[in-house]
Amino acid sequence: MKQEILDAIETYSTIAIYRHEKPDPDALGSQAGLAALLKHNYPNKTIYMVGEEEPSLTFLTKMDAVDNSAFTDEDFLTIVCDTGNTERIDGKGWQHGNKLLKMDHHPNVEPYGDTIWVNTEASSTSEMVIDFFLFAKDKQNWEMTTEAARLLYAGIVGDTGRFQFSNTTSQTMRLAAELLEYPIDTTELFTRFYETDEKMMRLKGRVLEEFELTEEGLGIMHLTKDLLAEYGVTVNESSALVNIFSGTVGLKAWVFFVEEDNQYRVRLRSKGPIINEVAANHNGGGHPMASGAKASGEAEIKEIIDELSELCKEYA
Ligand SMILES: [Mn+2]
């Protein structure tokens, strides 16, 4: 598989690298880390990074402004990083390449592409890029650069929560260690990663003061329009608050009701009870421990709270 990928990379003089929409550090780290490796090791090739800019992560990397028409009449290889299904690919033109390569660590629900390299054991796609780099170093004397190392390290840090999540394996550590051979400023990286706007910091304080914890172990927080407006935080930005009281002793599951124009966005999280069925009952869905739903008004909010309370009660 890796040989097939290396052959494809060597064959094409133009390579376009994509990743998923609303990128996280792993999407950007694997995309831009791979791009940096290709630019360094094949200075005569043209490498594009495609996708919308993510304002909160421009300290990691910036995209190339690419006109879609640049892709339609030229031979090129397309590599899509960290994206399980084609619907989530950010940017146009990915279908027009001569060869499409999928490189991902999510379950292979949609096996798109001519060459598919999926490794669900990998913590991150960035980890897979390092794995691939070592192969290419062995076969074609690829060199790592500090910039590529910084990007790939950021990707691993993002998807493993600083090496804390259960997806962190001995292999993750070995591959991350390869990167630390290069002079990455990890202090600067961690500072940028985990710093928070003052408005958000103040709102976190408010949430920690005001969330309700029921006898059953259900945490409840209402983010009204007025409250968000008071702090100047948008509905999307408020998603960063969802785990802030997760460490509370006795908490089993929790829910945020975020008021929008004519409905409520509902964010559900759990440390045990399976909550995605509740989400499915209310125009939503997701993972067993993390889902989203919608509530039309106070009556549906009460229904959701009742259903979650019941689950928490049943869960020993
Ligand atoms: Mn990822």
Task: For the largest sheet, list the strands in their spatial order.
Answer: 6-7-8-9-11-10
CATH superfamily of the largest domain: inorganic pyrophosphatase (n-terminal core)
CATH architecture of the largest domain: Alpha-Beta Complex
CATH class of the largest domain: Alpha Beta
* Approximate helicity band: 25-40%
Class derived from helix and strand content: alpha/beta
Whole-Å distance between the termini? 46 Å
Protein name: Bifunctional oligoribonuclease/PAP phosphatase NrnA
InterPro entries: DDH_dom, DHH_sf, DHHA1_dom, Oligoribo/pAp-PDE_c-di-AMP_PDE
Organism: Salibacterium salarium
GO molecular function: nucleic acid binding
Helix-strand blueprint:
Blueprint: H1 2-11, E1 14-19, H2 25-41, E2 46-49, E3 77-81, E4 99-104, E5 115-118, H3 125-140, H4 146-160, H5 170-179, H6 186-194, H7 198-210, E6 212-213, E7 218-223, H8 225-231, E8 253-259, E9 264-270, H9 276-281, E10 285-287, E11 290-295, H10 298-314
Parallel strand pairs: 1-2, 1-3, 3-4, 4-5, 7-8
Antiparallel strand pairs: 6-7, 8-9, 9-11, 10-11
The structure holds manganese (II) ion.
Residues 26, 82, 105, 124-125, 159 line the site of manganese (II) ion.
Structure write-up:
With 316 residues, the protein is α/β, with parallel strands linked by helices. It is built from 10 helices and 11 strands. It has 2 domains: 2-194, inorganic pyrophosphatase (n-terminal core) (Alpha-Beta Complex); 201-314, Diaminopimelate Epimerase, Chain A, domain 1 (Roll). The strands form 2 sheets. A 6-stranded mixed sheet has the order 6-7-8-9-11-10. Strands 2-1-3-4-5 form a 5-stranded parallel sheet, with helices on one face. The model has no long low-confidence stretch (mean pLDDT 94).
